[in-house]
Amino acid sequence: MMLDKWSMRLAKSGLWLFLFGLALGAAIPYFPSPRLALAAHTAAVQSGVALIAFGLLWPHGRLAPRASMLLSNALWLSTYTVVSGLTLAAVFGATRLEPIASGGRVGTPVQEAILTVLVIGGAVGLLAACAGWAILWRGRAPE
User: What is the rounded distance in angstroms from the CA atom of residue 14 to the CA atom of residue 16?
Assistant: First the structure.
């Protein structure tokens, strides 16, 4: 099976996100909030693996070219957005979005606004992209 442009982009994006997650895991003790760094590390590694899986499954979905382009870009951009938000939360050492991991510490209003846009916006985008892919999935043609 030959991977197309969009499936390759998903797989490569997943590999880079996975590698970022591994590096983040090595740096956990150095963040102001190690528990938030652990959350970012876990999200990055899991999202990276998910993107690689999407990339490998992508050609089997038989999506129209435009839908394939839109949904694949939405998937990798959304995962990167969520992981960026969680990583920034670990750097800030606080967020209202993860009260258990942050130990109840809250960032400044500007920090909280940035984190809310990144994490919630990325999560909504990811949910929409996954739902779109599930709806448009047509399965593999009989051989």
Answer: 5
Nearest to 98 by CA among 49, 35, 12, 24: 35
What pLDDT does 1 receive?
A: 56
DSSP 3: -
DSSP secondary structure string, 75-129? Answer: HHHHHHHHHHHHHHHHHHT--SS-TTTTTT----HHHHHHHHHHHHHHHHHHHHH
What SS3 state is found at 44?
Answer: helix
pLDDT 10s digits, 49-85: 999 999 998 888 888 889 889 999 999 999 999 999 9
Q: Name the packing angle between helices 34-57 and 65-92 (round to 10°).
A: 170
pLDDT in tens, 82-101: 999 999 999 998 788 888 77
Cα distance between residue 113 and residue 88, in whole Å: 12
CA distance 14 to 105: 31
> pTM (2 decimals)?
0.89
